[in-house]
Amino acid sequence: MKVEQIAFTFVFLLILLAQVLVLNHIHLFNCATPLLYVYLALDFHRNYPRWAILVVCFVAGLIVDTFSNTQGVASASMTLVGFLQPLVFDLFITRESDEEMQPTMKALGFRRYLYYSTILTMIYCLTFFTVEMFSFFNWQQWGFSIIGSFVLTEVLILVMAGVRKR
């Protein structure tokens, strides 16, 4: 087993434990919940097999669903983000980029990494809260949940990327 795989497994378990045990119990203003496990979907390098990205994202979502009682919402949303991750990542790199390039703040620069993470995090939050509510009856709560959770999640992702940069 490669060192990178062991490190990814450790980070995977650590982020999921933090999400399930701590972050799922934080609800600021009854609408904003930090969803740090989205960071797992942002971290795959350029030529990572797409089937493996989908499986890892689905499993991460399934673990969160199991402990959060969200009945498949997180796994569906994470699978969608895992499907879109290679496509969005290709928007921010050149064709001549290294085949093993990883989407980090150091490799992309702050601005491009911010845009990259913003797109995928917003897609995740939109999908998650739309499927969770499954109606637009209370559209204000829906909008506040998306925006609040997006801002909290994006801040946590940028902190994780900044810590990892060093």
Secondary structure: elements and pairs:
Blueprint (H helix, E strand, L loop, with lengths): L2 H19 L17 H4 L7 H19 L4 H19 L13 H4 L1 H24 L5 H27 L1
Helix pairs in contact: 1-3, 3-4, 4-6, 6-7
Describe it.
The protein has 166 residues and is mainly alpha-helical. Helices cover 70% and strands 0% of the residues. It contains 7 helices and no strands. It has helices at 3-21, 39-42, 50-68, 73-91, 105-108, 110-133, 139-165. Helix 1 (3-21) runs parallel beside helix 3. The longest helix is centred in the C-terminal third of the chain and has 27 residues, at 139-165. The chain is globular. It starts with a helix and ends with a helix.
Q: Quote the average pLDDT.
A: 89
What fraction of residues sit in β-strands? under 5%
Radius of gyration, in angstroms, nearest whole number? 15 Å
Order of helices and strands: HHHHHHH
Coarse morphology: globular
Q: How many beta strands in the DSSP annotation? A: 0
Give the end-to-end Cα distance, rounded to a whole number of Å: 25 Å
Number of helices: 7
The largest sheet, given as strand count, sense and whether it forms a barrel, is:
none
What is the percent of helical residues? 55-70%
Question: Which structural class fits the helix and strand makeup?
Answer: mainly alpha
Q: Unreliable stretches, pLDDT < 50, 5 or more residues?
A: none
